[in-house]
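Our consortium's second objective concerns turning raw sequence data into structural hypotheses that experimental partners can test. To show how far this objective has progressed, the report includes one record in full. It was chosen at random from the queue rather than selected for favorable results. The single chain below, 480 residues long, was entered without modification.
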Amino acid sequence: MSRKNKYFLLSLGCSKNTVDSESMAQVLNQHGMRGVGDPDSAEVLIVNTCGFIDAARQESIDALRELVNNRRAGQMVIAAGCLSQRYGAEVVAQVPGLDGVIGTRRWMDIFDLITRLRARRHPEPLYHLPTEAEVVGSDERGVLRASLQGASAYLKVADGCRRPCAFCAIPKIKGTAVSRPIETIVREAVDLQARGVKELILIAQDTTDYGHDLGLKDGLAHLLDAIVDAAPDIPWIRVMYAYPGYVTPRLIETMARHRQVLPYLDMPLQHGSRSTLLRMRRPAKIEWVYETVERMRQMLPGLAVRTTFIVGYPGETDAEFQELLDFVRDMQFDRVGAFKYSFEAGTPSAELPGHVEPEVKEARWNALMELQQGISLAKNQSFVGKTLDVLVEGHGHAEDENGELTGDVVSLARSYRDAPEIDGYVLVEGELPVGEIVPVRVTGATAYDLIATPDVAGPLVIQPGQVISEGMINLSDIQG
């Protein structure tokens, strides 16, 4: 079996990492290489690592070690991505035998690194890591900066971040924010429209900062206008990763004006206490959140708001945590993700006093999630009896009360309120066409998911689709 010119690429971490992985794959394909799903069949083994928190870093190290320990003669293992960018030599020290290391801002040079590795005469690993000061934003080698996930596509509009958040190492890993040219993004949106994409998801470390480095005011609003004009047949456009204080009146008006732009706001707020936010070096004007979300709810009926919070941040007192609970109760967010503070060496938060004990973090996390589950359940129950358009992603089989599979098929779908991977599902009785947007009638709700039946006139044509293992649903556990 010949492994020559074949590569295996494992992508870890977030959707932004997935886009970089697919961009590397495009570069390799342009040079006549072919991706395979079995590492034993490949000449080149690549792990696009995540370096954001301890668990993600360990997962990346473990994946690299496994490939190095099991590789065959003639195979090479390369560490790419965030962990490589930030820790370079340390990664090599933890994974003896690693062949190459390439950073986040030089993904486009992956084939060049492979060429050098093929020609090397000594076993020492080769590095291709830009410095923190080096900004790379124009050498994309003509690749599509998107990741297709079924009928959805993540499209990267910028990379890097210039925000000063005390707990975050992303600016050290990715560098400052670099926006991609608006005409390039629009051209790619048109390409994705031609491929039949039903949902276009705009991503960056901070989408609301788009265009700042290009001299654009309200750059994201300008970009949305341009995409809608050029790609009118993409039904859903979703904006992720907004930054507090930068959801401007112009952006809200633009979202409200375009039917394609979903009434969905993903804005990580991180906390509800002004004192904690100041220590986080985050926007601390809580009044702005109340005013802006209220304005959006008025202009965007049915607006779904998703946010994330950190509990147990250094110095977080009982009173500050209570402020967070009160804030969540006041705001009535549709979706909340919560994280226990993770120590990040080299960040300003690592130097703060007053670290919170693990058991206190756990208790606070549980209290926050218990509060939000009640809010989410009430929000979901408000949709019972209503009709929603949903994007069908796959099928599963129902289980009875004993956990045994029944013959009933359940379709796994998402509404405008549900971003891929992080939000809930709409679980629809029957087998709906995968990759299509169809109307359903909501019949029940849980804290995370909606239950529905098809709401269509006439039969549906079933299209081939991948069966998703997470679709094993116990209908007896679902309460209306």
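The partners drew two points from this record. Residues 358-381 form the longest helix (24 residues). Residues 387-477 form a domain with the OB fold (Dihydrolipoamide Acetyltransferase, E2P) fold (CATH 2.40.50.140). Both points have been shared with the crystallography group to help prioritize constructs.
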